[in-house]
Amino acid sequence: MMKAVRFHTDEKWIHLYVERWLKAPLQQDDGTLIKRDRGTPQGGVASPLLANIFMHHAFDDWMKRKFPWVKFERYADDILAHCSSRQQAEKLLEAIRIRLKECGLELHPEKTKIVYCKDADRRGSHKYESFDFLGYTFRPRLSKNKWGKCFVGFSPAISNQAANRIRKEIRSWKIHLRSDKNITDLAKMFNAQVQGWVNYYGKFYKSAMYPFLRNMERNLTRWVTRKYKRFRGHRRRATRWLGRVRKREPNLFVHWKLGLGSPIG
User: Fold this and answer.
1) Span 45-70, pLDDT tens digits
2) What is the 3-state secondary structure (H, E, C) of 224-261?
3) How far, in whole angstroms, is CA 84 from its chain's centroid?
4) β partners of residue 150
5) Of 104, 155, 156, 196, which cross-links 141 as Cys (Cβ 3.0–4.6 Å)?
C-alpha cells in the first residue's frame, strides 16, 4: 500500500531537502557508496534541478532586484543580458562577477564576453560581433523586410556546432547499409528526428539548415545504389528514381517537403 508523502514548502524545509540531496552518497555501478561533502554528481538526475534552484536565487532574483531595467535570458548556466551601451555592459559584467564570486561561482574566462550587436542601425565595430546561444549563432546577416528590401539585421541561425552534431547523427544512422528496409520504412524511422530539428532550428533563417538536410538525400541515393542491383554504380539513375518517388509521394520525407529532394523528372 502506497503512502502519500507531504512536502513542506516553507524556506526552512526547502533548504533541508536540498541539503539532504547534496549530501546523499553516490552509488556506483557495483553498489558501493561514496560519501560526498559538496556539489552534485556529474550526470546526476537531481543536478539540473538543483542547479536551476540555485541559479534562480543566486542570479535571477538578484538581477530583478539590482538591475530591473536589464532584460536577460538564462538557460541552466548560460546567461544572456541585454545592455544599451558598452559602459552599461561593463558595469553589469563586473557586478555579475562579484555576485557569482559571493555565491562560490565564477564566470567562464573564454565564453564570457561583451558582444556588439551590429546591424543596419548599429554600424560600429567591436572585437566580438557574434555569439552562440541554445544552438543558434547570432550575428549580422543579410535579411529582407516585408517590402522585399534587403538590410543587415542581427539574426539567429543554427550554429556550426549544432549543424556538425546533426551531420554526425545522420552519419550514425548508416542509412546506406539498411538494405533490408524499404523507402517507407526509412521515412518512418527518421522523419520524427528530422522534423524535430526543422521545428527548432527552422524558426529563424531556415536556409542555414539546408546543407545538412541535403545529407539525407545523399544517404538515400547511396541506399538506392546498394539495395537495387540495377542502380549499382549508377548514382545518376538512382537520383532520378528518387525523383520519381518524390513526385509520387512528395510528403514522404521531411526534407522533401522543403524542396531538398532529388529533381522530379
Assistant:
1) 667 777 788 889 889 999 999 999 99
2) HHHHCHHHCCCHHHHHHHHHHHHHHCCCCCHHHHCCCC
3) 27
4) 144
5) 155
Question: Which tens digit of pLDDT belongs to each residue from 118-128?
Answer: 988 888 889 99
* The amino acid at 65: R
pTM of the full structure: 0.78
d(CA 258, CA 265): 17
3 state SS for the chain: CCCCCCCCCCHHHHHHHHHHHHHCCEECCCCCEECCCCCCCCCCCCHHHHHHHHHHHHHHHHHHHHCCCCCEEEECCEEEECCCCHHHHHHHHHHHHHHHHHCCCCCCCCCCCCCCCCCCCCCCCCCCCCEEECCEEEEEEEEECCCCCEEEEEEEEECHHHHHHHHHHHHHHCHHHCCCCCHHHHHHHHHHHHHHHHHHHCCCCHHHHHHHHHHHHHHHHHHHHHHCHHHCCCHHHHHHHHHHHHHHCCCCCHHHHCCCCCCCC
- CA distances, 7 to each of 4, 10, 13, 197, 224 (Å): 10, 9, 8, 38, 58
Using the Cα atoms of residue 210, residue 211, residue 213 and residue 214 in order, give the sign of their dihedral.
Answer: positive
Q: Are 127 and 120 in contact (CB under 8 A)?
A: no
If one counts every other C-beta atom within 10 angstroms of the C-beta of residue 170, the result is: 19
Neighbours of 162 (CB within 10 A): 21
Closest C-alpha to 228, from 173, 185, 181: 181
